[in-house]
Amino acid sequence: MPQIQVNGTTLYYEIHGSGTPIVFIHGHLSSHHMFEPQVEYFSKRAKVIVLDLRGYGNSGKLDVEVGHIMETQCSDLCELLNKLHISQATLVGCSSGSVLAQTFAALHPDRVSALVLVDSYFAGCFGKKNHLLNICEACSWLSYYLPAEFFLRSLRVTYNRWRPVYSILRKELYHKRPTESIKQRMELLRMEMPANLARLPMPVLCVAGSQSEWFVKQMQRAATLFRHVQLATIEDAMYPTHLCQPHAFNRMLLDFLMDQHIYRTREAYGG
Which residues form the AB hydrolase-1 domain (predicted)? Predict the structure, then answer.
């Protein structure tokens, strides 16, 4: 397995294809497997990098305090790009992976050629909770320790129309890391988004599935926070949109990168 020492930990990563780099960042309770259809499609057209963030998949432990997790994971990504000799890349983040992508772009705007947020939300968007809701939230974390079999029926019902999605999410359930996942969840609940999003120079594409009303509203909010932003909804899809409708998503992402002159025609359609 390709692993690399960065920032005091070990990161699992894969590189597929060559050309203009695009980095896919997975969300909470998942791993690099969340982008299997994108790896297959874009590796013929670009240099695709997928990784497991610290605390997920085959990467090292989430051995930092809550309050420093997102900052540390951004540092991990920065050092990984340095060691791979990638000066600038397109970042595609799904769900909480898009929170990391936005944070990274705010910290290192010169390293990001474009930002693509899929089924995204904004840190702090859940608002202030009262004491009772905080207790309920903490109790729900106990479910992280339940065996994967406990969730399979509801997962199968939810994604009955999208069997490939069920297959990938089922695999992720069997490789969850409960304690580290709870720490990551605590970080996501407490943090706030960077203040300089409106000043970011790179183009931004926000994508949500039409059947995820909450995510659609979050993406509509995004259109008010960024300077150069496009908003798109993919029909007959829900979280994770890029897996429910991979062909539509891949084509949309490619068209966006072509329109922004990030990929040249030969790079985009070669292979």
Answer: 21-120
